[in-house]
Amino acid sequence: MSETVQRATEAHAGVLAAIHAAAFPPAERWGADAFALQLALPGVFGLLDARGGVLLARVAAEDAEVLTLAVAPDRRRLGIGRTLLTAAIAEVRRRGATALFLEVATANVAAQALYREAGLTEAARRRRYYPDGSDAIVLRMNLS
């Protein structure tokens, strides 16, 4: 793991929520309670980059999913998202996952570029997935 990334615990829920709130529109923000609840679930892990980023993922059997990845707006384009994604891929592999999935908004071109650069490819689309009615692209990475 990078020197700036640490394992997030329920004790970090407030910090995770603050980063998430800065990065997402109000209808898509996760509060501290949501982060704490997710982190308490089996198979879920969180990563916190001290520079201003958070990633939450879960592993269930052979599949892993990035639940959310957020970087504070004033900290973007510094490699934080890449660092978190790289650490998450290593962790889900360590936990035995053979595939990684995530959803990204069709309008989020920067995130799509990051994910595709990491090796994720389009697997499907979810129409009207987000609260604003926009579509999601489902991306997949083969880890085996």
Question: What's the architecture, going by CATH?
Answer: 3-Layer(aba) Sandwich
Question: In total, how many domains does the architecture comprise?
Answer: 1
The SS-based structural class is: alpha+beta
User: Within the largest sheet, what's the order of strands?
Assistant: 1-2-3-4-5-7-6
Superfamily (CATH H level) name = Gcn5-related N-acetyltransferase (GNAT)
Morphology call:
globular
β-strand percent reads 25-35%
The separation of the N and C termini measures 20 Å
Helix content estimate:
25-40%
**Gyration radius from CA atoms, angstroms:** 14 Å
Low-confidence parts: none
Any idea of the CATH topology?
Answer: Aminopeptidase
Q: Helical segment tally? A: 4
The total strand number stands at: 7
- One letter per element, helices H and strands E, the order comes to EHHEEEHEHEE
Major sheet: 7 strands, mixed
Query: What would the average pLDDT be, to the nearest integer?
Result: 95
